Amino acid sequence: MSKSDGMNYAPKGKPSPVVKPGEFVFAATALDHGHINGQCNGLSEAGGELRWVYDPDPKKVEAFQKNFPGVKVAPNLETILDDADVKLVAAAAIPNLRGPLGIRVMESGKDYFTDKTPFTSLEQLDAAKVAVEKTGKKYAVYFSERLHVECAMYAGDLVHSGAIGKVVNVIGMGPHRLGAAGRPSWFFNKEQYGGILTDIGSHQIEQFLHYSGATDAEVISATVGNFANPEHPELEDFGQASLLGNNGATSHYRVDWFTPAGLGTWGDGRTFILGTKGYIELRKYIDVARDGEGNQLYLITDEGTQHMSLTGKVGYPYFGQLILDCLNRTENAMTQAHAFKAAELCIRCQLVAEATAKATAGA
Known about the structure:
The protein has helices at 35-45, 58-67, 77-82, 95-107, 122-135, 144-147, 150-160, 190-193, 201-212, 317-328, 336-362, and strands spanning 25-31, 49-54, 72-73, 86-92, 111-115, 139-142, 167-175, 217-225, 238-245, 250-256, 270-275, 278-283, 296-301, 304-309. The chain has 363 residues and is α/β, with parallel strands linked by helices. The strands form 2 sheets. An 8-stranded mixed beta sheet has the order 8-9-10-7-11-12-13-14.
């Protein structure tokens, strides 16, 4: 796991199988983003059997095999889709290709597990909704900044148990290290990556919905900009947005590509959850200038203050829940409505930001 490069950040936890060997077979394809390794780590640790991998780029396949040496290389995607034993296909395609790939997978009779962001347009989202309804298959999304972070998972347990009362506000900070020299060309193409609020901003939206309990939200304001990368004119290196949930909770978040080289990880991701009876702060990847270990949770209530260092103590239950959801056709890991609403709102934030930019330029 790389702490310096967010694109290849792939946490590993303790194996916690929820199924017997061979009971849940899955495959991997579209290795365009390093998050595919985290997706497959999580499923494998939960007992899934990774049978196939396919990508048209043999170098990507070779690198993937080093992480998963037992996987078989498929000659094409059809080999995976035609294998009746494969129940789910995990993929990390170029963002604007994730939606169409998901529809193809679901129409083949398999569940789909994509890296975030799951879509780059509302039209893609609408098409996926139709496909889910038609096929009865799942369109699952890897929102790794909650699902693969132990302190973020435990924060949800605390919030939903009432530890800080009713959540009224969530502030999210999602800084990332750019590492431009190591990025593929699509990373700098707006049509392909969808904009910063659509892309990495999707994490923040998903967390707001999860912690606050809101099932919908209005975008109050949103802005984006390119402040330091003129050589990549389509890159947005900064974005921010504010939302009002349908339950009255609010959120403000910022995302950026400005992590300095001196920080010991790819981004000082933090989340602040304010409730009527206390608040929580998450220091996900590092406790800057104090502790290089992430998964730090601070809980402040009327009873006092607590600091919890949670690495290795919570695990990653989402993946086992997803496997069981696929087998039992349940929705314990994440509801389809939640995944699709997070996808919708991050795109709406992007659209508001682009409209704001046009209005400002024309003023």
